[in-house]
Amino acid sequence: MGQTMTKILITGATGFVGSALVNDLIKSDVFPLINENNVRLVLPVRQHSKTLDKALINKNGQSAVIIEQVELGNFDENTDFSHALQNVDVVVHCAAIATALNSDTLGLNYNTVNVQVTKRLAEQSISAGVKQFVFLSSVKVLGEQTEIAQPFTNHDPMNPKDAYGFSKRDAELVLAEYKELMKVLVIRPTMIYGPNGKGSFNSLVKLALKGLPLPFGSLNQNKRSLLYVHNLTEFIGHVINQQLAGTFLVSDVEAISTHEMVSAIKEGTLSKSLILPFPSWLFNMLGRITNKQEITKRLTGNMTVDISDTLSRTGWKPRAKTKDSIIQFLRSSIS
Fold first, then answer.
1. Is 231 exposed, middle or buried (0-12, 13-18, 19+ CB in 10 A)?
2. How many CA atoms lie within 13 A of 192 on its CB side?
3. Whole-number Å distance between alpha carbons of 255 and 149
4. C or N: which end of the chain has fewer Cβ atoms within 10 Å?
5. 10 Å Cβ neighbour count for 13?
6. Catalytic residue of the set 164, 178, 193, 228
7. In the prediction, which pLDDT does 29 show?
8. What's the pLDDT tens digit per position in 4-37?
């Protein structure tokens, strides 16, 4: 992008991925222009974040880039991003509702935040002259499970199964209408893990830290593609540097079994938990009894992706390996 000032707007900067992205852009070589003080970050937030203030400092104790937090309240279909978008070159849209809650209003919440806010932000980005719009979607637009020998690819048709997946699909369809007006890059990450993560991975970490038995010893035949959050932030930095467009599945290179994942969690947390055999059919039966089938399917089933097309089209390669990353970040978090 040359030596001129590049202005990047990042939504969801207080969330799991957004905060990791902000920190990595500032404190590492993910985006070389950062180190040359040629970048301004604009962070639309619900309210001013003191946590972000503390995080936005480089290793020398000084601000690495020019930072601007813009208070906009809760995002909805009426949010006015126009002031925050002034002179912005790149938008990275990470803000979303991802938690699956049992609520009659769930579909409305997903639609409002994941679809309508995306549409609003994209339209105002075009009006503001934004050059590149990077959207954090999800592999769930393709479905929930795969066969071991049939991973999802960049060319598979969309086939979501739940409200979250449908909302991300609808947001992608909205953005497809604007690809002639600005560069649109859609990222479909697999399950993301890392420091300050949430969801089922974090639940497994909590079990290990409590020293409770981990009944996953028999789940060694399935495979799941995971994504280390810092591999994701490096990918985002890379596609910004390269000014790319398109739709890309993103994950770590290797897929691992649930047993391998739990073993890495145990090693990383220095847990004394025993890993016990517990057959997959029993997991599935308990899932039906407790109405937690989706959780048990994620533990016992397969969900793999083929990122060879992503690697060849972007020239990016994930540096961090899954099991090593799990162990290292957990060791760091408990030290």
1. buried
2. 27
3. 12
4. C
5. 28
6. 164
7. 58
8. 678 999 999 999 999 999 888 877 555 655 555 5
Closest CA to 118 of 71, 169, 159, 67: 169
Give CA separation, 112 vs 15, 77, 93, 145, in Å: 18, 6, 15, 26
205-221: buried (b, 16+ CB within 10 Å) or exposed (e) per residue?
bebbeeeeebbbbbbee
Q: What is the DSSP string of 153-182?
A: -TTSPP---SHHHHHHHHHHHHHHTTTTTS
The upper half-sphere exposure of residue 317, i.e. CA atoms within 13 Å in the direction of its Cβ, equals: 2
Place of tokens 């503390």: 54
| Residue 4 structure tokens | 């001129």
CB 8 within 8 A of CB 90: yes
Which of 60-69, 125-134, 180-189 shows the lowest mean pLDDT across its residues?
A: 60-69
Q: How far apart are CA 281 and CA 261, in angstroms?
A: 19
- d(C-alpha 133, C-alpha 122), whole Å: 7
Range 187-194 average pLDDT: 97
- Whether 193 is catalytic is no
Place of tokens 């909805």: 76
- How is the beta sheet containing 6-11 ordered, strand by strand? 66-71, 39-45, 6-11, 90-93, 132-136, 183-189, 246-250
Cross-strand bridge partners of residue 147: 150
Whole-structure pTM value: 0.91
Token duo for residue 328: 């290292």
For residue 62, is pLDDT > 60?
Answer: no
- Evaluate whether 183 touches 131 at the Cβ level (below 8 Å): yes
Q: At a CB cut-off of 8 Å and minimum separation 6, what does 109 contact?
A: 97, 103
